Amino acid sequence: MGNKPPRRFPVVLYAAAGEPEPLADYCRQYAHARDWDAIETATDTDRSAPLTSRPGWTRVLELLAAGTVRGVVTYSAQMIAESTTDFDAVRDELQDRDAFLSVARSITSTPHPPTRHTAAQATRRRDVADIAAGYDGCGTERESAATASPSAGIGDLVHDHVADRKGVVTDLAVGGQPVLRPLFGSGSTWIPEDLEEIKVEARRGAWRLP
After folding, report:
1. What string of pLDDT tens digits covers the 210 residues of the chain?
2. Of 87, 12, 107, nearest to 57 (Cα)?
3. Residues 147, 153, 159, CA angle at the centre, nearest 5°?
4. In the chain, where does the domain assigned CATH 3.40.50.1390 lie?
5. What is the CATH number of domain 10-103?
6. Cβ atoms 193, 162 nearer than 8 A
7. Any residues with CB less than 8 A from the CB of 123 and at least 6 apart, and which?
8. What is the reported pTM?
9. Are 143 and 204 in contact (CB under 8 A)?
């Protein structure tokens, strides 16, 4: 009997806008590029409504609660909340559910120190970070440091010497600039000021959260 092919990580796409379909399609391409399986698309047309009262977001929570999906892909942080603090709170809530929240269109923002977590929370975030970095969880091989490109790639752990902080590459902006997020997933993403001051400390799959 042949082995079944590894199952890709299931995600739900979420967009909130007057015309959400084009944004959802952008999210679908983003998920496809990372080999995630877009199970369903949930949309809302009134972004001014509280997140918990939106029918589309309610559907997202239902899929997460049922274990149908392991992650949420949205077009921008503003689809979820207007403030960075509120967005981070939602992302942390999803991570406590052993799920991740990924933003397809990252925007440069002012970095701030990551939140401290308990050992149990750190373990959960380590596992979630593996998923968000592209780990398929099914034992398939990932790119090794020996064969990786010299430049920073998605999922790599890097040290931004200008900002004097470490981050994980979640996306590549125009010109190949890496978009970084704090190690524990909380806090805003940022784009390094000087690419010459970026050092790749470990390739995707070759590092773990402390």
Report:
1. 444 444 578 999 999 988 889 889 999 998 888 888 999 999 999 988 999 999 999 999 999 999 999 899 999 888 999 888 999 999 999 988 888 899 987 644 333 334 444 555 555 555 555 545 444 333 333 333 323 335 777 778 888 877 778 888 877 665 567 778 777 655 677 777 777 778 888 887 666 655
2. 12
3. 105
4. 10-103
5. 3.40.50.1390
6. yes
7. none
8. 0.53
9. yes
